[in-house]
Amino acid sequence: MRLVIIGGSDAGIAGALRARELDPSCDVTVVLDDAYPNFSICGIPYYLSGEVVDWSKLAHRTLEELSSYGIAIRMNTRALAIDRSRHQLLCRTPDGGSQEISWDRLIIATGATPVIPTIEGLSAGLQTDRVFLVHTIADARALMSALSSVQVTRALIIGAGYIGLELAEALTTRGVTVAQFEAREHLLATIDPTLAGQLEAELAIKGVELVTGTRVSSLTANDDVTVTLSRDLSTNTTTTTGDIAIVVAGVQPETDLAVAAGARLGHAGAIWVNRRMETGIDGIFAAGDCVITHHQLLGESYLPLGTTAHKQGRIAGAAAVGKTDEEFRGVVGTQVVKVFDQVVARTGLTELEASTAGFEPFTITTNADDHKRYYPGARTINIRLTGDVSTHRLLGIDMLGPTSAAVHKRIDVAATALQSGTSIEELIDLDLAYTPPLGTPWDALQIAATEWLQLVSQRQESISREVALG
Amino acid sequence: MRLVIIGGSDAGIAGALRARELDPSCDVTVVLDDAYPNFSICGIPYYLSGEVVDWSKLAHRTLEELSSYGIAIRMNTRALAIDRSRHQLLCRTPDGGSQEISWDRLIIATGATPVIPTIEGLSAGLQTDRVFLVHTIADARALMSALSSVQVTRALIIGAGYIGLELAEALTTRGVTVAQFEAREHLLATIDPTLAGQLEAELAIKGVELVTGTRVSSLTANDDVTVTLSRDLSTNTTTTTGDIAIVVAGVQPETDLAVAAGARLGHAGAIWVNRRMETGIDGIFAAGDCVITHHQLLGESYLPLGTTAHKQGRIAGAAAVGKTDEEFRGVVGTQVVKVFDQVVARTGLTELEASTAGFEPFTITTNADDHKRYYPGARTINIRLTGDVSTHRLLGIDMLGPTSAAVHKRIDVAATALQSGTSIEELIDLDLAYTPPLGTPWDALQIAATEWLQLVSQRQESISREVALG
């Protein structure tokens, strides 16, 4: 049995590894159009910052390791067309020729491509020595080459999502001044505005010139880069100049090959798959940033993330070798980002997502200490907690705190609770660990839960009173 | 309605607060036999170390705060006898007189008392200016007074459980040399011996002279303290001398009042209560370190801990004012301790507890990185994972890692999963947060889960082969 996988990033390699684990007789070939199989693209900001000195360290596994698992890697080989009936994959080989690779099972793991925002002067010739995307290892090396050879003292970052913020930190760490533009009212559209505001303050302290609620309308790149900025519907514009510009405005699923092969698309134009990562085309599976994401609270969704790509790839690999009892349980929307000394994390639904999905959300914003205040170094964690007013089901949590406050694992507690359909009352029952230097007898999450219950109860009483008063 | 609570520590105060919250008309009186209501006795080691300068900072709340919640505190008032029929509590008042306090509802929250191990010379006159217990704030102040006034360069600590280890760190931090004796083969009987061994190495690095598998058979206190040590059944003895000795050999439930009032005892001689903290005696509730602990995997158990005392107290307070729909969901055995730069944590069952409880446990010991190795500061977390071979249910986790590795919150993820009856496969499905400086795409827990499944599957295959070969 020959399994061919298109794409050598998280989903593709996870599928390859799982297939070989379950069926060591399976012939597994991974086709990828660059020279960077199994790289951690989430690590790019830390290469650019200088914290990771050698880009090759960003590989999850070396070629030798992949080879030792019995996986054949075909680098610099671009998949051009999937022939469903003949079970052939047409590829352009590294020497520019073309070749057909036959498959019994195929996994499409083509990932996502960067969204190019509508900015005058940006559409064509995007990647020059002054304007960069940061999506692949090749992108990262090109940018690093510019940072090392050109005099870069000021960088313009277009976009303030997860990657944009990590890049703002990375370049600041290098000593580059960062001006950053976000079209939305706040950075990180997925988190609570109050918490976003606090993170914005952190960026300001670190010297990042973040401008939110502001669109970049045009871009001119010559010996430097000038952008024109306009605030919402205002006709007034301003301009600012930097040595380079980096465009990080999100990603979209890469589906061309799948569509040409007749695959159905789903949410956000991503390849539709069932929970076994089957596309509906016989023998063809898909996983990772190119497919829809099953969300435990929202149903079909699209949330491209490395963790999910690994999980989906693992399922696809199992399904491809005939182990069809494994299904993707789905995500709950867990995300985390470190920005300088602060960590912001979320899981579950925002209030808007919750209402749209038919829940009756009620949200509180509060804060709690990471450990007993009497022990040195106690810090405040800001928490936003959303629950359903009628069922008291936990719907979502956002947290912001310093790196020392373990926000990145506290959100995992919430995610685990959410994934079990836990109620707010049951959060209070959780048997969580406590020692004064590292916690509080009622954990921060439980303090938020208690406050949520109190406020919901007061709200109900106030509604009852109003009803009684007619 | 008058609620009287015997005991002013975690359970007693949690009960008082909850009763007042639910029924502001309720008259709540807390009777305690010392002058330290609502103190965090878990914080004592950090007062002794010097990290908490003022002992009064160890209070969770001040007297004024308690008073503002409408709670009457009767300090230095010892409860002597409960009269069930007349609903009176006989007390010795601060001036040495006696007084009856009438109650409609009573919560017994008398806590635990230290176990005094059988050591020749120890039984009588335990607390001198050379020999100390460390259980109450008064104990802590007495010890601190000795540390400040006597020349203490070497301390003998009898016991290496949670408190013993925290004290070893505290005194070392003060510059006192610590010799520590543990009768069991390893420190912290509740954790995996491999992990215990690693923690023992950490203590050695920090200069603590820990001797395990060794009993203290006699103790002589004069101008200094000399103990005689014997190893298991060996008749050979050695002696060692220090300036002071501290006895921390665990605790036992304080049940005298309850027993005299006719309360039934349960596991480990603790006061039996149902999940509403009812003792079975009309109008009398009990909570905290004096009662049994409902354990979600073991049933009736005894695990005296501050977190549990808070939860039980909260339930008792609610039940006492007639809100009887709240029940204590039970613990899963979560514990954590920081010892110098290492954190060891556990949740669930040890292998022995699991077999005894009728499970079919299988345990693996492995390790995983706390975050991506390419990002600076990655550290190893040692993990022991126990699951049930037939159902694949998660049964227990132990973890050891440096404070930076967030072991204290990673164990909470495991505890939350355990509390929902999660299977090992479902651990792999958890949607946990990832960013390279703080995590790995498959979290350490998921790496352990994957390894457990692989080893169990290999084990099953090997058993099948043996069966086939007859």
From TrEMBL, chains A, B:
Residue span(s) of domain FAD/NAD(P)-binding: 2-313
The keyword Flavoprotein is assigned to this record: yes
Record GO terms (molecular function): CoA-disulfide reductase (NADPH) activity
Keyword terms: FAD, Flavoprotein, Oxidoreductase, Redox-active center
Span of domain Pyridine nucleotide-disulphide oxidoreductase dimerisation: 336-439
Organism: Ferrimicrobium acidiphilum DSM 19497
Family indicated by similarity: Belongs to the class-III pyridine nucleotide-disulfide oxidoreductase family.
Cofactor: FAD
Enzyme class, spelled out: oxidoreductase
Identification of the protein by name: Coenzyme A disulfide reductase
E.C. no: 1.8.1.14
Pfam family, one: Pyr_redox_2
Top-level taxon of origin: Bacteria
